Design the sequence.
């Protein structure tokens, strides 16, 4: 068996070129490599993805050692810490997602529409790759695997620009992927990890002759920066200010379980609950609905009515009065706001004002209320009587995701294989000319 040290050296060597070459040369190599994917058989793509998944599990110790170097430089109280953290179990889950992607149907060459014209022309709209996709992301090393698997399966080359917080983790992962590609006779430059510098970010955002699409994954500041500075089309993903509305017709047991799961399952992700909205007629049930959150020390920022309802029923050290910044905040931590409303319409209005069009939920036993909520609330994913934690590509049956789009053009919600394709028109004739 190859030793761990040799494995590490091999992974580093596989990244050497992309770290040392001038940016424009890197971009050219990616474009050239990307064009070769069109001639790779879908069955080979599947086998390579399965091999990368297996290799990730086999080399978990190497990835975790690199991850520890990054973790040692980050404060444990930083909301990004949990996103940065890898474990053997998380690597197994990442590998499982890659296997799911590998086994999904080929997204390319699908006939999206077909029209037989009176003049004999057959006009088809067919799914094709974008070409080269640039991903800019923060301390999320799992994204390196997810992006590669989805881009590779959908025939796209990818340029990865991770943050400095995860540079060692990303380098180990990208090196492993490139090594497998090289072993399988695929140009390893179909995936390139850029150094974690500002110059590289600026270069990628301005590489419009080489890159077809930019997808940022991270907080609001990162997304705003990319949108405002990119010369390349951008699909916004990531920032989530998520609400759950406990309606006057809500079942308190359902509400208790859903609120606890949405808030505490994993606080550092974009689908975590940030604000519980409660109808004033149900304030008597508020302590029960949030009761399970106390065991995990969830700090609550409550408006006046909610504060009074919780004052003697929730740990005093965890109960705070809501301030100016309590609503509309993506906490990414064990914190949650509580807003009291006098009507269904007021709840929807609060979501309109403070939501980020990511994921919103209603707890209600009234079918008419549920129907109105799903119709009126403007978000990529709208739930009734379920946790917003389900906003995830794997949970939606997509295999994995490249991000959660909060915009409306091209893609919305979890983005996976089909969302990483565009289309072209293919016209079949037999000598037709236009008068």
Sequence:
């Amino acid at each position: 068996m190859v030793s761990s040290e040799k494995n590490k050296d091999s992974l580093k060597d596989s990244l050497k070129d992309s770290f040392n070459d001038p940016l424009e040369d890197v971009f050219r190599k990616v474009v050239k490599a990307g064009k070769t994917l069109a001639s790779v058989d879908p069955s080979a793509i599947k086998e390579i993805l399965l091999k990368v998944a297996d290799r990730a599990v086999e080399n978990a110790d190497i990835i975790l050692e690199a991850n520890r170097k990054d973790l040692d430089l980050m404060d444990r109280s930083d909301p990004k810490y949990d996103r940065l953290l890898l474990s053997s179990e998380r690597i197994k889950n990442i590998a499982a997602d890659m296997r799911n992607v590998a086994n999904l149907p080929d997204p390319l060459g699908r006939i999206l529409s077909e029209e037989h014209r009176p003049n004999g022309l057959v006009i088809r709209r067919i799914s094709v790759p974008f070409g080269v996709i640039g991903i800019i992301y923060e301390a999320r090393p799992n994204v390196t695997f997810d992006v590669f698997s989805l881009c590779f399966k959908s025939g796209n080359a990818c340029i990865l620009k991770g943050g400095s917080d995860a540079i060692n983790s990303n380098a180990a992962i990208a090196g492993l992927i490139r090594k497998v590609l090289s072993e399988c006779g695929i140009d390893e430059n179909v995936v390139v990890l850029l150094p974690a510098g500002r110059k590289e970010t600026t270069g990628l955002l301005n590489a419009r002759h080489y890159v077809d699409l930019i997808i940022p994954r991270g907080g609001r500041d990162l997304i705003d920066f990319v949108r405002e500075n990119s010369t390349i089309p951008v699909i916004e993903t990531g920032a989530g200010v998520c609400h759950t509305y406990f309606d006057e017709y809500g079942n308190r047991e359902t509400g208790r379980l859903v609120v606890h799961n949405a808030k505490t399952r994993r606080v550092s992700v974009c689908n975590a609950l940030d604000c519980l909205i409660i109808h004033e007629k149900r304030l008597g049930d508020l302590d029960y609905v949030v009761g399970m959150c106390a065991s995990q020390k969830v700090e609550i920022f409550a408006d006046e009515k909610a504060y009074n309802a919780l004052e003697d029923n929730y740990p005093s050290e965890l109960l705070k009065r809501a301030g100016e910044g309590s609503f509309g905040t993506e906490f990414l931590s064990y914190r949650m706001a509580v807003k009291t409303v006098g009507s269904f319409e007021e709840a929807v209005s609060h979501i309109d004002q403070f939501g980020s069009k990511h994921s919103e939920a209603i707890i209600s036993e009234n079918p008419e209320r549920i129907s109105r909520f799903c119709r009126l609330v403007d978000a990529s994913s709208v739930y009734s009587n379920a946790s917003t934690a389900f906003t995830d590509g794997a949970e939606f049956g997509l295999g994995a995701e490249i991000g959660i789009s909060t915009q409306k053009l091209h893609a919305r919600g979890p983005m996976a294989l089909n969302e990483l394709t565009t289309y072209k028109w293919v016209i079949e004739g037999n000598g037709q000319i236009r008068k």
